Amino acid sequence: MITRVLSGIAIAVVGVLLLCSGLATTLIFAGGAGACGPTTRVAPTASSAARSPVPGGIGPVGDWNAEQVGNAATITAVGMRLGVPPRGWVIAVATAMQESSLINTADGDRDSVGLFQQRPSQGWGTPEHLHDPQYAATRFYQRLQAVDGWQAMPLAEAAQAVQRSAYPDAYARWEPAATRIVAALTGVSAGLAACQVTLSAQGWTQPVHGDVGSGFRTSGRPGHDGVDLIVAKGTPIHAASAGTVTVVRCNAVDVRTGRDWGCDRDGNPALTRGCGWYIDINHPGGLITRYCHMLTHPSVAEGQQVAAGSVIGVAGSSGHSSGPHLHFEVHLGDHTSGTAVDPVTFMASVGAPLNQ
Length: 356
Hints:
This protein folds into 2 domains: 43-187, Lysozyme, CATH 1.10.530; 194-349, Glucose Permease (Domain IIA) (Distorted Sandwich), CATH 2.70.70.10. It is 28% helix and 16% strand. The chain has 11 helices and 10 strands. It has helices spanning 2-6, 12-20, 46-49, 66-82, 86-100, 127-130, 133-145, 155-163, 175-186, 191-194, 343-349; strands at residues 211-212, 227-230, 236-238, 243-254, 272-283, 287-294, 305-306, 311-314, 326-332, 340-341. The strands form 2 sheets. Strands 1, 2, 4, 5, 6, 7, 9 and 10 form an 8-stranded antiparallel beta sheet that branches. A hairpin with a 7-residue loop joins strand 9 (326-332) and strand 10. Helix 5 crosses helix 8 and helix 5 crosses helix 9. The protein is globular, with a radius of gyration of 20 Å.
């Protein structure tokens, strides 16, 4: 069955070869997800291009610690979900660098709150809402997109149009650092190597680089139809191979009431059931991969074509989950328990072993 599946995949490598052939410096993705990011690429500055990316998880980038980079990951993920071009992600992260040093502070100047130091008295929202990084980032992007011509503006001008700061020129100094972090988190600026994606000859790659936690149908979890890959919250998740996104869904139910738990918050192993934010991708030959427990709404849409290695979302702990990880499934046929195969065995067979 695996041999039949692989026969339709070779074409997926073509788009990746374009990135590795020297065209990566000029290629712009218009439409479906590119090899590392969902839309157009960000041109790195000289200083950002010289820095190393985050290898498979949320960790320090330059002088920015794991907490700060994690908050930048949330800001970037919200921009992906809203369909904001990558230039907007850089503007948003740079703004938060200036306003809060990427620390989600409860109290700031006057009544300022959170990553963007937004003020309830100026109509941004309640203090509780503004202390939620996803809400705060959403509000920033909404106002940014309402600014005519923001994509053509210098970063400081675009940020100031949203923030109305007493120090309008201060945002500009953070552009190299913001570009560096966005590039490290998404790989958008520098092709496959920057987002730690290596394709096998069969056109497959690891969705994340993490240790296998709970395995496939163990004695303790015989109904576990996939494997749990342990990674930090905010880790970019990559499409394991080229295909079409068929499902983008929130599945999190409060077992006490049977009501919706919601996916824009962490789940609970005892109180929540379901996959949280998850997607299914259909691949040539009738193969399906599933990716569960994402931090925010996935960065792709149903019907979207994705290349192998495309960033499709970021890891979290939504749904039935005890901590950040990616639950990854492989099905040879329709998505039922009877079609599930061990992802560890399958991924090794297609040249992209997990745990590496």
